[in-house]
Amino acid sequence: MTPLERAVQALRQRFGDAPNAAIVLGSGLGILVDQAEDTEDAAYSSLGLPQPTVSGHDGRVVVGTLGSTRVALLSGRIHVYEGRPMEEVVRAVRAMALWGVKRVVLTNAAGAVHPSFRPGDVMLMDDHLNLMGVNPLVGPPNPLGPRFPDMTYAYDPRLRAQATAAAGRLGMTLHRGVYAAMLGPSYETPAEIRMLGFMGAQAVGMSTVPEVIALNHMGTPALAFSLISNAAAGLGESPLNHAEVTEAAKLAGGRLGALLADLVASWS
Predict the structure, then answer these.
(1) Which of 52, 65, 110, 165 has the largest count of CB atoms under 10 Å?
(2) Residues of the chain whose pLDDT is less than 70?
(3) 153 noted as active-site residue
(4) Whether residue 242 lies in the annotated active site
């Protein structure tokens, strides 16, 4: 049995049937767990999932309800820059899909490339630029999906429309744009940020894209949000600091939490 298969088996034994949706919580966004009710949880390590090593990523699965919808909250993720194998980076979302989750929402804390974005803003990811230099599908053909998956609709159009409608119901401004994924862990230089702007990116971060590729490969609908936590290099007045980025995400996470709660209510 592979590590992925053992993780799926552990999820079923611990939580029973799969919930309707899973939400991956990015840096500082573990606060969203507090909005769930009737929760039960387990550490990643007890489920055969890799344990994160980055501050702001707890490394536990919390299953509960948002509104009337049962969801799995993945509090923390593995990043490529941690030096872990790509199989570990995407194991959690692949386990969700094989468990039977019907859709996966991913969140991240990101730097603003677009000059009008401000900390606390939320951006719906319409597309991405994979500038990490890695892809979770590199290697022998994977039986979980096609060898050459099309990425045109990696961010599910129907789910994006539902997210836009949820933001409208809340009277919330929801930006839309392209997310640039960089390897990290060093932040980008001002020249790199200018390059990303010329390439069409509105936000930049160090996660999410490998997971979206893996989910698209498996045919699992994916939706992703960036919580803007800071101005990218060269666009702000102070040096970038991970602790400050995480704290900014915590302070603004309630807005994204309200949006997610409204959104998943229609999935019960």
Answers:
(1) 110
(2) 27-31, 54-57, 232-252, 268
(3) no
(4) yes
